[in-house]
Amino acid sequence: MDYFLKNSFFKAFLITLLYYFFYNGLYYLAIFFFLKTKRTELIFLIYPFIYLVTLLFVLILEKKIKKHTYKSKKRVNFKVIFFIIISAILYRIFEDPILRINQIFNIETIPTYDKVTSVAKEQISFFVYFVLLAPFTEELLFRKILLGNIFNKYNPYVSILYTSLLFSLIHINILDFRTTYINSIYTFIFGVVLSSIFLKSRQILYTFFFHSILNLTVFLFILNRHKYWSLIKKLNFNYQYWLIVIFSSIILFILLNKIFKIFASKD
Question: Is 236 left (phi over 0), alpha (psi -120 to 50) or beta?
């Protein structure tokens, strides 16, 4: 048993599993509490509450993990942050075909949505959880703790692939296999991008910005999903849709290459 606990791969898997069940356990306990007490008007507070507690759990975990020393790029480059913001927006376009794979292959029809009518407090709650708390918590765990400390001495390619796999696992919905494989694919690719940025920069600030801005674009898509799906229905994955995706992907890879060169020049 001591061998497994000292093994970085097993330790990282165990930490990920602990995180997954801690978060989901809190979620179902909160749902049970709100339904049991019939305080359904406060149900919009569930996600921010869960992620605040989960963030505290991850911060405690960080203190317990044996840290390795690594060279850190101390100064924040605002030019890089600007490139990362643009890259995150372009990344949402790049990943769209993965998210819409069921519609592209006619496994599912293109849905029709009415205008979102959720109240402001629900939108603010979702924004705090989805755009701020979730990205910071996940970057702290998967990039700083797992990639930066536990896998510090391993081959970078192995470290990136394994931690990205673990990152994709926490986004699995065991109650909905229909969307799980899609979530696994795009979160794995996203994990590879974030891990690469972290290993080049040794700053979770950059990966947090990338993660947060991407989630912000998704948040805006959700608020305007009736417009988004109307546009998808109009384009119907024709040549114009693919031109937008290809052009955005080319610009994205040029920007990422530019970011990596800036990091390399500071070594």
Answer: left
57: burial class by Cβ within 10 Å (0-12, 13-18, 19+)?
A: middle
Q: How far, in Å, CA of 173 to CA of 102, rounded?
A: 17
Per-residue pLDDT tens for 172-194? 877 666 667 788 899 999 999 99
Residue that the structure tokens 């898509």 belong to: 221
Instruction: Report angle CA 43, 49, 53 to the nearest 5 degrees.
Output: 150
Count of other CB atoms within 10 angstroms of residue 82: 12
pTM of the model: 0.92
Name every residue whose Cβ is closer than 8 Å to that of residue 20 and which is 6 or more positions away in sequence.
Answer: 169, 170
CA-based nearest residue to 206, from 69, 214, 54: 214
Non-local (6+) Cβ contacts of 52 within 8 A are 133
Q: What integer pLDDT is reported at residue 154 of this predicted model?
A: 82
Kindly report, residue by residue over 94-141, the tens digit of the pLDDT: 999 999 999 999 988 988 877 766 667 788 889 999 999 999 999 999
Cβ-contact 26, 50 below 8 angstroms: yes
**Comparing C-alpha atoms, which of 34, 16, 263, 247 is closest to residue 138?**
16
CA 207 distance to own-chain centroid:
10
CA separation for the pair 29, 52 (Å, rounded): 15
Tokens, residue 64 = 């317990």
